[in-house]
Structures are given as C-alpha cells and as structure tokens.
Specification:
This protein is an alpha+beta fold and about 500 residues long. The chain folds into 2 domains: about 10-175, Anthranilate synthase (4-Layer Sandwich), CATH 3.60.120.10; about 190-495, 4-Layer Sandwich (Anthranilate synthase), CATH 3.60.120.10. Helix content is about 30%, strand content about 30%. It is globular.
Amino acid sequence: MTPRLSGPIISTRLSGCLPLSEAIDALRSAICAHCAGKSSQSTLGRFEIEIESADLLRWLAAQPSGQRYYFRNREGTLASAGIGCAAEFSSWADPSLGTLLTATTDQGVHEDGSSEPLLFVASSFDPAVVGKYAPEWEGFDQLHIVLPLVEIRRTKRTVLAVHVYGDGAEALAALEQCESPVEHLSLPRGLRLAAHGDPVRWADGIDAALGAIASGSIEKVVLARTRGYSAIESIDPCGILGTLMEEEPSAFHFLIEQVADRAFVGASPERLFGRVGKFLQSEAIAGTCGRGPDAVSDDRLAGRLLASDKNRREHEIVIRRIESVLSPMVENLACDESPRVMRLRHVQHLVTTTSGQLKSKIDDARIVSELHPTPAVCGWPVERSREFIRQHERMSRGLYSGVVGVTSASRSEFSVAIRSAVINDTEMIAYAGAGIVRGSDSDAEWLETERKLSPFDALVVRASNEFQGSSQLGRMGSHRGDAHPQAHHRLVTGS
C-alpha cells in the first residue's frame, strides 16, 4: 500500500558504523521497539545506519528477483541499490509523491543527502507505443517512481536504510530476507549473439528519413535498431550490469526490475539533467566517431569530429532545443561556447554543458516532461520526429531512450537511457541509435550503431572466456583495472 503523506518524514539515524549483517540486526531491533504496542503508524518512517564499505551491486545480486533497483551517477559520487517497494507512483501529480519530494525529514538532511528518501524513476520514450509490437516490455510501466523498502546508498559514506509504514511488518520481513552479497557477479552460460539486425531495413529507414529531411518536414531524426542475445540459463541483470560498468566505467549505470526475470539495464554517457538544490546542469551529447588504437589516432579522430559539419549541425540542434526549454525555467542560463569531446571506451562524442539556477516553483516533474525527449534521441522538430519514428521503426523502444534516474528533495540525477538492453529470462535485446541529418549515409550510421553496441558484444566474449576457464574475466572483482588505457571519460576542448 502506498502511504498518503502529508507531513515531514520521521527519520531515525542509529549511531555507529557496523558491518552489514550487524546493521540489519540493529535496524530490526529499532523498528520493533518503535512499533511495539502500536497497531499502525500513519507516517512514513526512515531508519538508517552507517555501514562499512559494501559492493552495492553484489549485494543487489544476492536479493530475490522481482523488485530491484540500481543507479550510479557518472562521476561515482552517488550510487544507490534498493529492493522492494515502500511506495510507488505512476504519475508525477500524485500528492503523496509531491510530499516526499518537498518535505524535509524531522531531523533535517545530512550534507550528502543521506537522511532523505531517494526515489528511483524510469519512464518510457513514447507512451503512445508502449506494448506495441513489443512483448519484451511487458511488466514495465510507462512511468514508474518507487521508494524502495530497503536501500543501500553510497555518497561520502555508505548508509543502510529501511522505510517503515503501518505496523512495520513489510519492513521487518524485507530485512529478514536480506542476503549477504554474492562473492562475485556472473555472466550466463552459453551467452551468444542471436539476432544481428537487418541492414536492408536500416537502409530503407535512412532513405525515408533523408526524404523527409529533404522535403523540409523534419530537420533531424534519430533511428534505432536492436541486437538480440540468448543464453542457456537465466540472465542475471546484475552480472550484465557489472560487466557493462567495466566496459564503460564513466557512465550512468542503472538497473530497473519491476517483476521477476525481467530487467532493464544500461551504461549511458548522457545526462538529461542533474540538480543540487536549485542548481541545474544539463548536457547536449550528439555527434559520434570511433576510437583509435592509440592516443595520436584518438586525437586525430577527435579533431575530425570537432571539424565535421554534419556532426556539428546534429549537435547544434540539440543545444538549441535544450536552451529553448530551460530558458523560461532557469536564471543566469550559461552554455559552453564550443563543444568538447567525451571519450568512452568504444566511441567519442561531442558534448556541451548548460547550467543555471532554477526559478521558484520549478520541480523535477516539469523539467523532465519538457526536456525529454531531446533531439539527441528523437529529432527535430520533436513531435514530427517522434511521429516519423512511430511510423518507421516498427518496434517499441520501451524504456530505451527514455529517462532513468533518482530524485529527492535536495538533489536529483536523470540520465537518458541509451546504451541499454531489456532482459527477459534467457533473452536480451540491446538497442542503439544514430542521428540522421542532411548528409547522413546509411553505411556510416550502421557502423556508428555497431560501435555503440560493442559493449554488449563484449559480454559474449567475456562469458565465453569465463566458462572456458581460460581466464578469470568472469570474476569481476579481480579485473577492475582491465580497461582501455583511455577508457575513462576525458574531455578535449574544441574550438
């Protein structure tokens, strides 16, 4: 039952810093004492305690499949793993959600925000086509906002928290069922490429897009395609995400699981926006090229990307849209004078940052609804491009290129859910897209999506190595340094 909230959150911070198992026992005792002799609690309570450092994803992997959530921001300054559901919402307009996102706790909020409820958010790219042609998206809501029953959050410290409502029975049961972290994350046996994609259909879509652009009906459209994978056993989304985190360490990492055996995971480079208090920052990421075998080649490719008329035009469309949306909501809006290059393991992107102070009464709900979808994942003009996508992609993107993030009263982080895949038991479908503008070439855009799908192809290689026993790549704790020398996100100033 989702509680109806009307006042501050009752927050209790237990003293000390304990190992995870001892912290669970301490929280159980505190909740039992709090609820003793009371038939029901009409307010939402949050009990928390600092714990010794823990691997959040390995802890999440140990918990039963069904309702598991994970989000880590690109800088690594915020990571959260949650299980269960203390409250859930399918609309930003729900009054109880508004209370959660505006009411402070009765004890105030710590500097790192660790004492306030943090909600996980996932919304689809286009609610009009959710479920159409897409049984793989069954079980996922168009908009899902959830406060987990149990959460481990890492900021400057690591905190274990549980949310209590009513008689506390759900919270106690969730703590009772908590398992210790698994020793290592695993990829599934027999993971293989099952469906490569159709280059002819892709070329037809590009031709149609170029025709629409030539006619003047649209200026840009982003087309997406899929690649299918299968395994001989159920695919653990935590194992998939753990490997993606190694493939793309400087990305937003996320996992959304609303029902058992179905999950959405990804490692996205793209920030929709981040907010700390009233300070807002957004990014335009559009324009892509590959990586070189060495630093000299990388610099050469980055220089070509910065000088590319096609990529700069594609990028400029996104910047114009972000500025036009944010201008009415933000004071002292500032935008980088020129794009920079973001280097990931497999690709390089043009990126421009926009920032400013939010005006009064501007909340995350309004920003998300007006800013998404950006031309980086849809096109321009947005609604005409989205209609073109509905007619020509012949699939539902579901949560792919939607919004995934976390939000609270004091801060929020929202990523555009690209470089992602949906998992259904033994099957996985990965998604990648490319921006089409005047001058685009279908072969070049196909190659761009191939590069964007590379992290998922790498899973197949790693899974094969793991079960052949030829290496220890599957034991993720043993190869944290196994990364491209320039894999970490680096920005190169353009002119």
